[in-house]
């Protein structure tokens, strides 16, 4: 695909968490009050030990989980309101969760059907996004006929076909082999630059977080909290050789040290 010119994120906030706390049960806080602002168009990763509340934070941004305290704004509105405006916020999970009886194209078209986009426009948009993620040849196949990497591409295409303002990804590449993962890193970055969407990416993988992000939010556990924010000043488009540079190694070390400061779950 043609690479879109990189644009710096705007200074306008896409996501604002102000003193956001969460307890699922009384006296057992999962998230201590956290404050986090993510700018429009920014690519931010959340990293931290298991159980520190990364998915909970993502779910709160998505409006799928209610915080116990604090205020959340997404594109200047409450998450509940943003969710009602279909297609503005999209979620990609580790499990691609495709409908097994629908073809690749029909899976990708689903969100547009729900938004009642007319058929001709729907077909056009599905065709375009499948071409961008290199899935044109498998448009008529069923999910069980695809590899894990292809299923994840379908899941990402399904999320992006509505051109969401915010894309939330919860360990999307955790189950994939390293080569497939690296291909998808490149594709995700291309898509991000193309759509100028705001990305919040949850991962356990320090290398992945450094390669992809403009900013990494390192979280600690018991209770979940933000330990450190680390900027990744490397320009885009990212060159795969970045992974073997000294700058990369240094940034990975910084993130690992910050994870050490946060303790384990
Ligand atoms: N619906 C729920 N009800 C009760 N407790 C929950 C619920 N969801 C999450 N938790 C608890 O909240 C804590 C944080 O979970 P969360 O999934 O947000 O962490 P995480 O950092 O994403 O973990 P992982 O990296 O293992 O996916 C965990 O102790 C988990 O057991």
From TrEMBL:
InterPro entries linked to this entry: AAA+_ATPase (IPR003593), ABC_transporter-like_ATP-bd (IPR003439), ABC_transporter-like_CS (IPR017871), ABC_transporter_ATP-bind (IPR050166), P-loop_NTPase (IPR027417)
EC supergroup of this enzyme: hydrolase
EC number: 3.6.3.36
Domain ABC transporter: 15-248
Record key words, sorted: ATP-binding, Hydrolase, Nucleotide-binding, Transport
Claim: Ribosomal protein is one of the keywords in the record: no
Hydrolase listed as a keyword: yes
Signal peptide: none
GO molecular function: ATP binding; ATP hydrolysis activity
SMART domains: AAA
PANTHER family xref list: ALIPHATIC SULFONATES IMPORT ATP-BINDING PROTEIN SSUB 2, TAURINE IMPORT ATP-BINDING PROTEIN-RELATED
Name assigned to this protein: Taurine-transporting ATPase
């Amino acid at each position: 695909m043609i690479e879109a010119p990189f644009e710096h994120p705007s200074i306008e906030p896409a996501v604002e968490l102000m003193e956001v706390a969460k307890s699922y049960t009384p006296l057992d806080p999962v998230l201590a009050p956290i404050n986090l602002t993510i700018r429009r168009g920014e690519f931010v990763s959340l990293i931290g030990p298991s159980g520190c509340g990364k998915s909970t934070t993502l779910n709160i941004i998505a409006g799928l989980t209610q915080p116990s305290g604090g205020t959340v704004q997404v594109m200047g509105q409450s998450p509940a309101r943003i969710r009602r405006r279909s297609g503005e916020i999209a979620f990609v999970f580790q499990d691609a969760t495709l409908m097994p009886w629908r073809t690749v194209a029909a899976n990708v078209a689903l969100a547009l059907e729900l938004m009642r986009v007319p058929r001709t426009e729907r077909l056009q948009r599905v065709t375009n996004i499948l071409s961008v993620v290199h899935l044109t040849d498998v448009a008529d196949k069923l999910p069980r006929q695809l590899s894990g990497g292809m299923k994840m591409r379908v899941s990402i295409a399904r999320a992006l076909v509505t051109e969401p303002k915010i894309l939330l990804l919860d360990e999307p590449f955790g189950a994939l082999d390293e080569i497939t993962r690296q291909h998808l890193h490149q594709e995700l970055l291309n898509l991000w630059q193309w759509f100028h969407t705001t990305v919040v990416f949850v991962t356990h993988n320090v290398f992945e977080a450094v390669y992809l992000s403009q900013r990494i939010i390192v979280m600690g556990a018991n209770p979940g909290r933000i330990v450190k924010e680390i900027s990744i000043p490397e320009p885009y488009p990212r060159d795969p050789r970045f992974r073997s540079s000294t700058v990369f190694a240094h940034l990975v070390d910084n993130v690992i040290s910050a994870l050490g400061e946060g303790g384990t779950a």
